[in-house]
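Q: Fold this one first, please.
A: Sequence and structure below.
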Amino acid sequence: MNQKKIIIAVISLSFLSFAWIGYVTFNPDQENPGMVRFISLNDLSSVTESERIRLGGRISAGSIQISKQNQLECDFGLQQGELTVPVNFLGTRPDLFKDDAEVIVEGHYVNEKFVADQLQTKCASRYEGDLRDDSSYNVESI
């Protein structure tokens, strides 16, 4: 009798889990903080002001302007190919934030300006380690 209850409980939890995953996946218009679209600059025209999105690209050379009133606020241009969008960010900037750095910003696109509340920079290649020939690794010693 106890085995039947355990099997029924496991099946029920599995069904509820799959139903929740299906609901979250097929209802992206809901306010799901974990579900943020990553889009290109070409697709910005299809975004509503209330929609939270992510953009990626390079910081346009010479575009970084730090506010004199608030050192945490800065404006810069985010570039993807030939397209550039102005970005406003308020917060602590990563150490690798500089001209031509690859960044990912998250926030809202409002009045043809991206207002970001999260900013990430891609790590420079110096942090990726020394890539050597596979034969130089001694896997058996691990």
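Q: Good. Now the second chain.
A: Here it is, same layout.
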Amino acid sequence: MEKVRISKLLSERKVCSRREAEKYLEQGQIFLNGVLVTEQGTKAYPTDRIEIGPSAKEEQGQKVTVMLHKPLGIVSNLPEPGYREASDLIVEENHWEGDRRPFEELTAPLHVVGRLDVNSKGLLLLTQDGRVAKQIIGPSSVVEKEYIVRFEGFVTERQLDRLREGELTIDGRRLKRAGVEQKDANTLRVVLIEGKKRQLRRMCEIIGITVTSLKRVRIGHLQLGDLPPGKWRYVDSAELRFK
């Protein structure tokens, strides 16, 4: 059995990110089998007991994740002239009335997890927790993202099969299989487990479908539900247990 960097082990165990682990090593907040370690690059066996100190645990426990119903015309996180960013909407006046947690819990910047383009709407997550981001958009992620796609004209079963079968390529890479269900004459329900830039719109373009509306309604088991457009709410830790 080979030894692995403590920072990598802590990241794999979803205790903290690698960068945070390196910071905690500097701060004297990591214990290997009960012994304090501070040297960067320290390695341990995967079976070893690795713990973080009280202040590091408190910091991890205070990390916040929110769910926003992103409206059309809002960019996720890349500033563009004339457009507002999603983070601009995370203010007290847009805090959903049904959320019992106080606005004051939000004390540090948030980062978007899984972008939606300016012409798309729906469920957008913003977090202070790198562990959440890794689970959803990391290279090994298999967390489902569900979309409702409306289009003009009609679609054939062969076009839908091309979406389902994973035979499409974007930027020279073959895409994974997608779950596709036709809801009515002009509406599809699509489930992806990857998230390349404008992926779903580009997939539809390839097979000749003209998208008129795209809305993300689910990430993993997190449902957009009745959250109104432009409103946000806190996501509790129990809701962030993605498989």
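Q: Anything worth noting on the second one?
A: The radius of gyration is 21 Å.
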